[in-house]
Design a protein that fits this description.
Number of helices: 7
Helix content: over 70%
Distance between the termini: 44 Å
Strand content: under 5%
Length: 146
């Protein structure tokens, strides 16, 4: 059982490492940059600067907190893609895990196992979206109020 858990963790780490580092990092930084530019031009930032706060405090305390919403959504969606990325990684490297179980069940036409795995991956997506909503509410005070 312990070897199975280690395999699943290693697969997840491999998929996250490659996918996030290669493709998603550029997109993530572009989204954060765009969100920060938009937030820094908001009227409340002008009033915060008028109160005499230093620029690092304005950016880190007020602007970044409001700009993190889109970034949280992207990161949690990327985390939800781990489940589907395991299928490819485990197939390529012939590692045992949920991905290889999925491909074996697909080859055997074992619809019960396929439905269970699809339900598990759909539940993971829903769970990560709930985590995103909670994190967004904690970071952005406007969302928490509504």
């Amino acid at each position: 059982m312990r070897g199975r858990i280690q395999t699943i963790v290693m697969t997840a780490a491999f998929v996250v490492g490659l996918a996030s580092a290669a493709a998603a990092q550029d997109d993530t930084m572009e989204v954060l940059r765009g969100s920060m530019i938009e937030t820094l031009s908001q009227p409340f930032i002008v009033s915060v600067r008028a109160r005499g706060l230093t620029e690092p405090r304005v950016v880190l305390r007020h602007a970044l907190r409001n700009a993190l919403g889109p970034l949280i959504a992207i990161v949690t969606v990327d985390a939800a893609l781990l489940v589907s990325g395991a299928v490819v990684t485990e197939s390529v490297f012939a590692w045992p895990g949920l991905g290889s179980l999925f491909t074996e069940a697909l080859a055997r036409r074992d619809y019960t196992v396929l439905m269970a795995l699809l339900m598990l991956s759909a539940s993971a997506v829903v769970a990560f979206n709930i985590v995103a909503d909670i994190a967004h509410a904690l970071v952005d005070p406007r969302v928490a109020a509504s």
